[in-house]
Amino acid sequence: MSSYKNDYQWSQIVETLNKTISRRDFIITSVAAGVMTMVPRFVTAGAAEPYRIGVCLPTTGSGANYSERPIKGLPLIAAEINKRGGLLGKHPIELYFRDTQTKPDVGAREARSLILNEKVQTIIGTWSSAVAMAIQEITHEHKVLHLAATSNSSKIVNENYTPYSFQFGPNSRMQSGATVVAVLNMIKSKGWKSYVTLGLDYEWGRDAQKVFVDKLTKESPETKLIKVFWAKLGETDFTSYITAIMALKPDFMFGAIAGKDNETFVQQAKASGLFKRIAYPGVFLPVTELMQQRKTLPRHIIGLNRCPFFAHMDNPIMQKYVKMYQDKFGKDDYPDDFACMYFDALNGLDQGVTKAGSTDSDAVRKALTGATIDTCRGKLTFRDCNNQLDAASYVGEVVDTPDYPFPIFDPKSMVAVQGHEVWVPTCEEVRKLQKKRI
After folding, report:
1. What CATH code would you report for 10-169+311-381?
2. pLDDT at res. 18
3. Domain ranges in the chain?
4. Are 10-169+311-381 and 173-307+393-433 the same fold in CATH?
5. What does pTM read for this prediction?
6. CATH topology (fold) of 173-307+393-433
7. pLDDT < 70: residue spans in the chain
């Protein structure tokens, strides 16, 4: 599969799916701007009512570069389930894709349309936490399951909690907490005394920055925060921020930047020589970035990601998914963090339905609450007070290896910080954060 393009077009993704998936497993029944429906090509005679799933992902906007592989991977997983008749062996899965445009109002509108017009029973998505929180209001109102596969503000499971939402990746508190673990070791070994932060000015960026600063202040109060910088979502020129940061001469900086903005910042910072003068530990580097920036990404920086396939190639479930994915899309393409978490979300739903013995949303919700599920990262358990999966964050040094045509985290030194090590310590504290819903 070729490398990512700067601007994603829905039609390009649809064309890829037409060539690789629909001719065998699915029929694409409707294609329009931002709309795609996939239904099973073959349905057994004993099939019951199909199980309709809405997939809300941005194919435009800042999060578009993280959507390609989940959009390609989800039909593969659905097809595997449909080969045995679907959920419970009799409910074939239908997928309804919608473009959220990385905008909360659009995400909410599409979620409502999926529920009212397409009669979906579950919504999976999205990338932006702000969009996910807007979708939560709609799914809670209609008592429809919401599987937050990749959006990861801690507010999704804490302040904005609804029992119908389940979070499959480490939330921003857990992710920033993992970065703090790594930074604390470096503060001690390198004698760091000061830092700055640069974050994207939206829900996830604000939340991730706050958690990092709060936790580091608690653990290392003598480490001084010199300056806080905020950049708008979709920023294309970070020059002024880079110049200001370099002038302050901090020992390190923390960044809460993701998506296309992350690529832009890293390339501009590298060109300016920032990484030679200021350490940048914990930069968000999912597999997407490692593949996309394979030629230009600075080696030996300390990165963080959520679900790297290369950390779990000893897991038979991960092995099977990578093989399935590459059989369709070629040996040079790999599922990224987001594709892997969407894999776990759809398979987690399958396990919840099986445990409940029903596709009823309330029955499945109850079955998944506190449940331990098989994932491509191993057996993981949902916290029963907020439906947060006990998922690790991965911190490591970016290096080249002979195993892959792109850099990965050094297997010898990569650390997996477990979710329960860095989430809100007690359920009593979690419940104090959660707003009351009816």
Report:
1. 3.40.50.2300
2. 65
3. 10-169+311-381, 173-307+393-433
4. yes
5. 0.89
6. Rossmann fold (3.40.50)
7. 1-26, 28, 30-34, 41-46
CA distance 201 to 70: 25
HEC profile of the chain: CCCCCCCCCHHHHHHHHHHHHHCCCEEEEEEECCEEEEEECCCCCCCCCCEEEEEEECCCCCCHHHCHHHHHHHHHHHHHHHCCCCECCCECEEEEEEECCCCHHHHHHHHHHHHHHCCCCEEEECCCHHHHHHHHHHHHHHCCEEEECCCCCHHHCCCCCCCCEEECCCCHHHHHHHHHHHHHHHHHHHCCCEEEEEEECCHHHHHHHHHHHHHHHHHCCCCEEEEEEEECCCCCCCHHHHHHHHHHCCCEEEEECCHHHHHHHHHHHHHHCHHHHCECCCEECCHHHHHHCCCCCCCCCEEEECCCHHHCCCCHHHHHHHHHHHHHHCCCCCCCHHHHHHHHHHHHHHHHHHHHCCCCHHHHHHHHCCCEEEEECEEEEECCCCCEECCCEEEEEEECCCCCCCCEECCCCCEEECHHHHCCCCHHHHHHHCCCCC
